[in-house]
Prior knowledge:
The chain is mostly helical. Helices cover 56% and strands 0% of the residues. The protein has one domain (7-24, 33-122). It contains seven helices and no strands.
Amino acid sequence: MLEQxxxxxxxxxxxxxxxxxxxxDVVLPDRPDNPSDDWxxxxxxxxxxxxxxSEAKCTIDDLExxxxxxxxxxxxxxxxxxxxxxxxxxxxxxxERWTKRTAEYVLATPLAPDYIDEALAQMGYSCDEGY
Length: 131
C-alpha cells in the first residue's frame, strides 16, 4: 500500500519533525490566525537559522513530489481526514493539492509526527520496532 514512500524514510522524517516541534521556542497554533497559504511560512520564519528546522525541511524538500504527497497523505490519515483503507483517495488528493511548500506545511502542522506515526501503525508499520 505504501509504495511511494519507504517506511524507514517516513520514520526518519517523523523523528526530525518531532525533534523540531519539541523545542520549547516552537509554538504552533491549533488554528492559524491567518488562514492564508502563507501562515506556515509566518510561523516558521523565526526558525530559519535553527539547525533542527533546517535538517527536517531539507529532508522533506529532498523527497520526490510523489514521496511528499505520500507523506502528506499519511499525515491526513493519521489525523483522521481519511481512513487507512482509503490510501488511494488520500494519496490522490495529496497529489492534486501538492505545493512546493510541503515541508513548511508538515513542520507547521501541530502533532504532524504523531499523525504520520499513527498512519504508519494503521498500515502495519512501526517506527519503534522496524519493519
